[in-house]
Amino acid sequence: MKGTILRQFSYSLLLLVFSICPSTSDIFPGKKHFVRVVNDLEAKRLDVHCYSADDVIDRTLSTKGEQLEFEFRSVVNTYWNCSMNSVVGHVEIEAYISEDPLIDECGGVHCIWNAREDGIYLYRIKHSDYVKKYDWIPKPLRVRSIKRNVRP
Ligand SMILES: *[C@@H]1O[C@H](CO)[C@@H](O)[C@H](O)[C@H]1NC(C)=O
Q1: pLDDT band at 100; cut points 50, 70, 90
Q2: I want to staple 69 with a disulfide (CB 3.0 to 4.6 A). Which of 28, 30, 36, 45 is the partner?
């Protein structure tokens, strides 16, 4: 008997909360989303550093086909940027931005990025194809210092 009353009370409390809060996203965190970064480079290491407003993920994808995937709940203003480093160069991408046309291009709750020799591609789930979104910024050529025989 006591349990029933308590349960009824909880239900009314829940209803009250729902009626007060205009949007349930205020109480419940947003929908689950995923970002995946795939190393599609031929025998090259890829260092990935992804960050949002409150999280950081660092990973080394040492071989072709190796990938990193993480999930998060997306609310207003959620973003994930990933900077990538390889012998080809470096680049920083906007891997996820809530309420952005990018999400529609991702085509679902997954944004899948492929790092290739000629740039970073986004996999468009709805079209089953890849579009190039970023070029690598090439590393500056290493200038070898020329040793001279300087005699005193
Ligand atoms: C994310 O990366 C983009 C592209 O490099 C940059 O313009 C933007 O400022 C970055 N956002 C944050 C929050 O660092």
Answers
A1: very high
A2: 36
Query: What order of strands is seen across the sheet that includes strand 110-116?
Result: 67-73, 32-39, 110-116, 119-124, 129-134
For residue 94 and ligand 1, the question of a CB distance below 6 A is answered with yes
Pocket test for ligand 1, best of 54, 79, 80, 94 (most atoms within 8 A of CB): 94
Q: Tens of pLDDT along 42-67?
A: 999 999 999 999 999 999 999 999 99
pTM score: 0.76
- Domain with residue 68: its CATH number is 2.60.40
Residues β-bridged to residue 147: none
Number of domains in the chain: 2
Measured from the CA of 79, which atom of ligand 1 is nearest? 13
- Side chain identity at residue 138, one-letter code: P
Strands (E), 21-108: 32-39, 46-51, 56-61, 67-73, 79-86, 89-97
